[in-house]
Amino acid sequence: QLQLVESGGGLVQPGGSLRLSCAASGATVDRYAIGWFRQTPGKEREGVACISSTGGTTKYTDSVKGRFTVSRDNAKNSVYLQMNSLKPEDTAVYYCAARASCTGYWYNPRVGSWGQGTQVTVSS
Q1: Are 51 and 122 in contact, with CB atoms under 8 Å apart?
Q2: What is residue 90's DSSP assignment?
Q3: For residues 60 and 29, what is the distance between their CA atoms, to the nearest angstrom?
Q4: Which of 31, 40, 51, 75 has the fewest C-beta atoms under 10 angstroms from its C-beta?
Q5: Which residues are CB-contacts of 1 (< 8 A; sequence separation ≥ 6)?
Q6: Sign of dihedral through CA atoms 9, 10, 14, 16?
Q7: What's 25-82 look like in SS3?
Q8: Comparing C-alpha atoms, which of 26, 46, 27, 44 is closest to residue 36?
Q9: Strand, helix or coil for residue 89
Q10: Gap between the Cα atoms of 102 and 33, Å rounded
């Protein structure tokens, strides 16, 4: 089965950038669409972005459009989330999860095998 591990989080100032990585093992990632999600304590997990299995389709929640870019390198079995112009409200634990596609209800927060994620903190 496919296993995904997130990395790349850290502490950045407002306006800064981070690139998160989602490394796959157990199966090739090219069979799956991949969604990025985030969660803060006391709030439900939120869908942030999604990329189709080939990279031909991407989806973003309105709050990150123009600032975040999801990409993938199937040869490296990895998916990335480039986060630019970061805001304090972007502070959260970020997770990646496999999806059948980026159409329909890809952002369902109750679907997925959630690991530890990676912490992103945006603060001055």
Answers
A1: no
A2: G
A3: 20
A4: 75
A5: 26, 27
A6: negative
A7: ECCCHHHCEEEEEEECCCCCCEEEEEECCCCCCEEECHHHCCCEEEEEEHHHCEEEEE
A8: 46
A9: helix
A10: 6
pLDDT-derived band at 114 (thresholds 50, 70, 90) equals confident
Split at pLDDT 50, 70, 90, the class of 54 is very high
Phi-psi region of 63 (alpha: psi -120 to 50; beta: other; left: phi over 0): alpha
Mean model confidence pLDDT for the chain: 96
Q: Which residue type does 9 have? A: G
Q: How many residues does this entry show for the chain?
A: 124
Torsion sign over Cα 110, 91, 70, 75: negative
Residue entry with tokens 């929640």: 61
Tokens of 77: 């079995």
Q: How many CA atoms lie within 13 A of 75 on its CB side?
A: 0
Distance CA 49, CA 46 (A): 10
The radius of gyration of the chain's CA atoms, rounded to the nearest angstrom, is: 13
